[in-house]
Structure formats: C-alpha cells, structure tokens
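As a next step, the fold was encoded as tokens, giving this record:
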Amino acid sequence: MNMLSTNKFLDEKMIIKKALRSIEASNSNAICNDAIALVTLCRKNKKRYSRLDNFLSEYGLNNSEGIALMCLAESLLRIPDRSTRDDIIKEKITHAKWQDHINKSESLLVNASTWGLLLAGKVISPKEDPDWLAMVLNTVSKDTVREAVIQGMYILSREFVCASTISELDQLNFNNNQSYSFDMLGEGARAEFQAISYLNRYIDVIKKTSEINNLHNINNNVSIKISALFPHYFARKDQQITKILYPRLLQLCETAQEHNVSLTIDAEEQDRLHLSMKLIQSLSQETSIKHWQGLGVAIQAYGKRAQDVINLISEIAIRREKMHVRLVKGAYWDYEIKHAQVKGYKDFPVFTHKAFTDVNYLRCAHQLFNSPNLNFYFATHNAHTIASIYHMGRGRQYEFQRLYGMGALLFDQAKNYFDKFPAVSIYAPVGKYEDLLPYLVRRLLENGANSSFVNRVMHRELSPSEVISDPIKKSQKMLNASTEMITKPLNLFTNRKNSNGLDLTDPCVLDELQKKILLKKENKIRVSSCSTLQVQNHEAIEYLSKADQSVLGKISLIDQNSIIQFNDLLPSRLWVKTHITDRAKILNQVSDLIEKNPEPFIYLLIHESAKVVEDAIDEIRECVDLLRYYARQSESLSDLTLSGPTGELNQLKYYPKGVALCISPWNFPLAIMCGQIAANLVVGNTVIAKSSELTPAIAYYLVDLFYQAGLPKDALHLILGDRNIGQALVALDCIDVIAFTGSLTTAKHIHSSISQRDGALLPLVAETGGLNAMIVDSSALLEQACDAIIRSAFSSAGQRCSSLRILLVHHSIKDRLWNLLVGAMNSLVIGNPCNFGTDIGPIISEASRIELTTYIEQFKKKGVNFFHNSNNTQDTLNLIPPTLIEINSLADINDEKFGPILHFMSYKKSDLNLYLKELQTKGFGLTLGIQSRIDLQIQNILEQLNVGNSYVNRDMVGAVVESQPFGGIGKSGIGFKAGGPNYLKQFVNERTVTTNTVAVGGNAELLNTIE
C-alpha cells in the first residue's frame, strides 16, 4: 500500500517512458490501419449513429451553443419555479447562434432540435423583423417555449439513462450476448439520510438485477460508489469509516453474493484512492465473501498510480477467489487538475496530456493480460484503443464496455470488422433526472471536448488518421517538449513559489503528522515579550491548551509600566539602510523556515487557537504565501521617473514611514500577524507587534523565525499583553502607522484615539468583520451549495471574519436545502481538534461561549425553526454546536456573532432586491456568496451589494494571497486589500524630487537634436 503514497505525484514523463518501452513491441501500423478502418465504417453507416452521438458531434464544447446546452442540461430540469426556468432559457438560448447549426447534423432529431432552439430564441428575444417567421413567433407564449425546451432536455437526458427507477429495468431488451452494469446515479452523500437512501437503493438494484439475470439467463452486474454510503469519506475519518461505512460496504457485498450478482466498486477522486484500496483490501479477505468471485473494482488510467492499483488487486486476488477489474480512462480530469493546484500539491496525481492517459491505458491493459487472477473489462469509445486491445488480447478472455446511449455504432462495426471480437457490456445509469444531471454534464464535458474521439469521429473535415491520433507517436513527441502544457501546483504564481500543501488524504501522511505533533507536546513552551529595550515582564503563569486543557507551558506578559519606554523608540538604522532586495530575502528565508518545519505551528494552532488540522495547515500556507508575495511586491517600490518638460528630471521615491504598530487577532494568529509584520518590514519600517493575549506562543515563535533569518532585533519588537497594553501602545508618540485586524468596536476606539492626539495625522489600516451573506437561487446545484454553505458558515467554528452569517434562499428550494443542511450539519464531529477526525473545534474562550449560548437561547425562546448538532459532540470545553436559525426579517440580525451560527431566510424573487438593499444599509461589506447559474442574476446581486470579496458558485472563506486579495468596505475595513498589489504602499511615504537639469548653461541634449 505504501506505493500508493510514494507514487501519487511521480513525474509523468518518467512513467510514460517506461510505459512506451513495454508496449512498443505492439504492431503500431496494423493498429492504426484498423482504427482508421473503424472510423471509415462508422462514417459509411452514419444513419445508425445514436441520437446522442449525433448530438455531441454537432454540439461540442468548441462552440457557445454546445456550452449553452450543457448549462441548460446541468440546471434546467431541477429548477422548480417557472420564473427561474424562463430566465435561464432566455439567457442561454437567446445569445447562441443556432442558425449556424441548421441542417448540419446527420440526425433528423438533432436538426429538429436545432430548429426548435432557434425558434425558442426568437420567441424569447423577438427582433424588429418584418419577416413572417418573426411575426408568427411573437404570437407564441413563453409557456410554450419553456415546455418545448424542457421536453428537449428530457429527451436528451433519456439518451444517457436506461431507467429512472429500478422497477423500469424490466423494460430493457435483454439477450445473452450483451450484459449491463447498472449504476445508481448520485454523487457522494452529504448527509446520513442520503447515505441510508443510497444503501437501500443499492440493495434493491442488486435484488432486481438478480431477478432479471435469473429470468433471462444473463450476467448483469451492479456498480457502487463508496462515497455514497457515508457523508465524510475522507482519510482523516478513519474511525468513523471503520465503524459505520465499512459494515455497509460489507453488507452490500454479502447481499450481492447471496443473489449471485457481481459488484464493481467505482473509482472516485485520486485523493480517495489510497483509502478505497485500504477498504477493498480488508473487504477482499472477509471470510464471508472470500470465496465469492463477484467482487471487482474500476481503475482510472489517467491516474499515475493505475499500474500500482492493478498490482495490488492482483496480489489481493492471490489470497482469495478471482476478482474483476474495469479499466476506464477517468471522468474527473479537470477537477483533479484544479484541486491539485488549490491544495499546493508537489505535482498532479493524473497525467496532463490525453495522449499520456491513452498510453497508460494500453500499459495497464498489457499488465491486466499478464494477471491470471483477474478478469477484466475495457471501457472505451476510442477506435485506436479498441484496435490496440484487440491486437493485444488475441486468444484471451475479456470484455469491452461502453456507456449507455453511446458508442453502439463503433462497436457494431468492430464486431463486423474483427474476427472473434469479444463481448461488449453496457454501463447503464439508473436514476431520476435530478440525480442524472451531474452525470449528464460530466458525459457532455468528456465527449463534447475538442480532443474527444466521439466529438471528432463524424467531423468530415478531419481525415480518419487525424481522428484516431496515435497516442504512442503523440506521446513520444510530447516527451521531448520542454514546456508544460498545464502549470504545476507549485509554479502556479508568477515569480514566486506557491506554498506547499500537506496531503491530508494520504493515511501515511496523517500517521506521520500525528506522531510529530505528539512529540511536540513533550517540549513545554516558555514565551515572553521580545525587545531590545529593557522591558519588565510579569511572573510566568501556567498556560493551558484550548484543545484539551493540557499544560502547554508558561507565558510572561509585559508589565504595562514598560510601555512608556517605547515612546522614544526610533526606527532601526541598520534596517532602514538595508537594501529592499535584502529585506525581501529575509521574508523568503522565513517562509522557507516555516515550510521546512511546519509541525511546531500546526501543534500551536491546534492547541493555542483550537483549529482543526486542515484549518491549521491552510493558515500556515497563507502565512508562507504572504511572505513570498510581499517579498516579490517590494520590487514595485523602486524609484520612478515621471513625465515632464525637457531639461527637467522628476522622480518619485518611496521611503519607510518609520515605526509601525501591528495589532493582530486570535482567529488567524499566524497568517494575519505575519502579513502585517512582513509588509511593514519589507518596506523598511520598524515594527512593534502586539499579538492577541489568547495566542502568545504562535506570535513568539514567528518573531523568533524572523530573528533566525537575520532580521536585526531592533527592527521587530513583540509585545505580549491584554487589551490595556494595546491601548497603551496606540497612544505612543513614536508610532507612525497602525495596522489592525479585529472587531469594529476596537477599530473605532483606535480611530478615535489617534484622531485626538497631537502632532502628525496617523494612518490606520484596519480590517474588521462583516454580516456576510450568501444568496442561493433555485438554479443552484443544491449539493454544491450545501458544501459551500457548510464550509463558509462552520469552518474554524465560524470564527472567521469572512464566515457566512446570513443565508438567503429562494422559497421554492427552501425545504430541500434546509433538510440537506441539517443532515450535513448533523454528520459533523464537534470536539477536540487534536483528533484529526474532528470537523469543528471549540470556541476560543469561555466568555465567547457564554455570549453565543445566550444569543442562541434568545431565538429558542421565540419558537423559530431551529437546529443545532448535538449528536457528535465530544467532551471538550467551550463547544458551540453548528446552529441553524430561521429568521423572518433581516432586522433580526444587525451585528456579527463570532461563532458557528447561521441565519436562514427564504425570499421570493420579487422581494430579492429589497433584501439586497436592506443588507447594503447595514453598512458591512466584507464577503458575499452567490449560488446561481444565471449570469444576469449574479450581475444584479454584485451591482447592488458593495462588498470587498465576492464568491460565485463556491465557498466564501479562505481567500488566497494574490488570487483573492482580502479586505472589506464600510464597517468591514479601511485600506487596500491584504495579499493584493497595493497593500505595501500604505506603509510608505511618497516623495517627489524635481531637478532643473539645465540650471547652469543650457539644454545640450535638446540643442543636439536640431539639424
């Protein structure tokens, strides 16, 4: 199993070079000739092309019409209200050029559909046109158009799904020469009630398949997804997976064995591969099913570890009855690429070139043919792959597999063309339309893409040899290419390295991290203020973990009488004289020190700020990104020569402001503090850093890293103390600029204090909180919205200034989304963050817990619709369960409650603008979320709300440095955004120097230009 960890991010070229050596002996010319022959035969028999193949051939993703149809298919059928359906039809249809596709397809159905879409576009958006057609269309109602388009989407959907319910399977035409693999549609479960529903549906389909098999003497089988059986199918949930998920998986296998039905465990995301194999390995050795030959797995050839998985399954099968493998190319390539970039992985777990995937598929096929303990199926719609497998497998027992509604013509021609062509089974989805849509979009994306064989096969402008595109020759050419087609995760940003992410989906990584963190506990911390001035500290006091109340060590807070010494503090002369490029090197050195040894900060973030491990790692990455970004941005502060008349030199220069006071909060004690310090240091300021009294150790160890990196100690002073110390620092005469992150109340106190002081005006850069809202309309994908809401509202126990506080939901989906959220919330584990399976840790303090509890109780007494999780709570202090409160008016909430509390309110479309206006009048403007598929709706919301950071169709927390500079408007902050291109300029003074260069004599340069 260890190779699944070590080989996840192997260099793809190394893998492909090895793969090419193993398959280069195959008859390449014969394979290509056979593949060309198949394409030619398909074109000669074009009338037998399926409706869906014709559709995809005409509407690929290389034109706006294909994309419009994908958007419609993805959302239209699940939108419950007519008004929103009209909006999305109008938006997606009226802007497309349907006339370009009139009578272009070989299919009468596709041509008829094109005419219908053209007419729909004209009805919805009539032009001033004397043409008789336009006049006729103006008499047709929107209802007629709506129903016509909906029916068209239903027709398209039925081409992908063999039955909407299990009972409808009886209506299929069965024969002994063709079997089905039934797949119950649905993505991963978000809630326990969904997982139980999927489990029961799997049991029902197994029983129905057994009935059909016995009746027709056939061997249909069933495919299942492990993620459908448990809401949190992640490696860090190993205890719950062992206790809850694994018995369900075993139950399905035993049920399938009892009914003599083969079961295939479908492949999922690469991050779940190691975990899946671990479960399958245990499952395969269960005494109750060890002698059952019906257990199998799907393997994705686009994954770099596909060969490792085949080896593992082959070894497993030695100790039991035979197993089967379905080899597929992979269905979530675009997700895998983006996910690896977002997580900061050292490379991709999948190949970045389609040709590499095709070559690896052939390598895996070769491997399977040499695995005597396995039966296998080859799932493909590609002529070259079919021909390659046929040549490779002559005289061997195997099957091909195609998707329901696709590839029938290609395989029919292959049966006629090749001698003794093997059987072809069908992967057949079963499910209702709302479950079909994610699957439908995935198929459209895969097969509508420009590189897809299905998309290209009927394009006569392409020759058959161009269509088949020999992957071996193409890969050999790509191996010699020096440039990357897709930017690797660590090279994502220009001129700076992306921060490393820890792969928490790898059980080996989790085990190693857990051991390192436990070792840290043996070393008790001892921290105090750091300054070159002779400050006095109070006697050290015992310091407890907020995670488990264990003793972390001792801290010494500064004596307030020492603060007066800082009145005479002068900027560090050595640091001011240090060149800005050398200052940037210090920042980069600190970032490298953190990345080289992140475990101490992971330990401290868990124990001192009660963060779960994922949040701790995210914060460390943000800290590293800020250091590197500000180091790079410092290059923009070089002197500028400005425009002016001849004989005159005008220069703009940047100088440090002097002494900066940086006041940071407890909720992001590492990233925010580091960002404030780094920004001021790199421009040459001397920094007094005041951390929260709740997180002193993180501040101490961060400052120590700056010293280790070579920063002069008189350039950075750390002050540990309470809010009284903060007030005393704000009043110091030496301060030239203040950077503050915290509550609005404290920000106003600081503003009031500095406005009343004598002397120079003092600039304040402040980031406070917000009443952050998310709007979910009825076109939103509810599962996606649920994921975004849960993370936005409850990650970090709702203790982010960006956390979601108000959820506005279209009334037509109110009940469905409420129930989904309740189910998802109920599955969260709340408790000790030392346990990696914990989703939500404690509130920061007892005082905060009391305040939030009192607030929740007030709503309980009102009798409102209300839910909070109390099922998975562990015995830890200061816990507040995730809480969902339905409100009837936005007037019910006017200030921020810093915890896992989400206010839920439904709206009618006619009232949305009024609610947006009411949100705007509250004066906050930090983060905004929008879940919608309608561009005009999105634009309307964005225009009405003046918000610093808006997020569309994703969660609204975890802003990434440089990609999403962070900062609010109005009550939510003042100043340029942190992690953005202008942030550093707030901490410098600008000076211009104008020199008359011809003060003596004349302008020789100008005179020399005269002929």
